[in-house]
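Obj.: predict assembly geometry.
Materials: sequence records (below).
Method: joint structure prediction, all chains together.
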Amino acid sequence: MERIDSFRHKGLRNRLVQELKQKRITDIEVLRAIGNVPRHLFIDSSFVKFAYQDKAFPIAAGQTISQPYTVALQSQLLEVEKGEKVLEVGTGSGYQAAVLMEMGVQLFSIERQRELYQRSTRLLKELGYQGRFILGDGYEGLPPSAPFDKIIVTAGAPVIPRNLLIQLKVGGLMVIPLGDQKQILTRITRLDDDEFEQEQIEECAFVPMLNGVVKDL
Ligand code: SAH
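Observations (raw structure tokens):
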């Protein structure tokens, strides 16, 4: 499939960046990344004309691509530095992954649904992003590649997955939506081996984090 990124798309992205600035996204690297990633390529063709509105949309397998504001806020809260090792739970469309890789991190991203894993891995590779994409259960994290500087969870978790906590470096941050139907976006800092601090940021609504791997629909 041909992947076109036109001047019109770039113009729409610039407008989206201005809108995010007004919504208190201040991290220049986050805004630059959102300005560079062609979000319209991560969205099903029937929604392409809305790609640069600040809205979430359905993707395959009953999942959603997060709203740009949410992607920007989570990325900003992670305070990533170039070269850091970051684990994402819930690759989905791959858009959040692309934004983080644009910011220069070494990304590992886990997705539990094979269909999404295959699509997003293919798209991200075609766009030249080099990350590690894994079909697996994010509740388990990724022990062989741990510990991580940062962990971002992009599905609503009923509780903080313990395996993820222990795969975070001391001094590292995790950003995770906590709760069932609606969640509170929460930032956790690992202060020491067994000392964690929690900050509650704001309400949000993600699809639920579920157990296990789905190979067939
Ligand atoms: N970051 C994505 C958001 C996708 S929605 C984006 O930018 O598009 C959340 C995703 O989390 C869904 O694709 C869902 O299948 C996935 N997910 C839910 N529970 C999971 C788990 N336990 N492990 C890995 N992925 C999970």
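Conclusions so far: The two ends are 24 Å apart (CA to CA).
To do: check interface contacts against the pulldown list.
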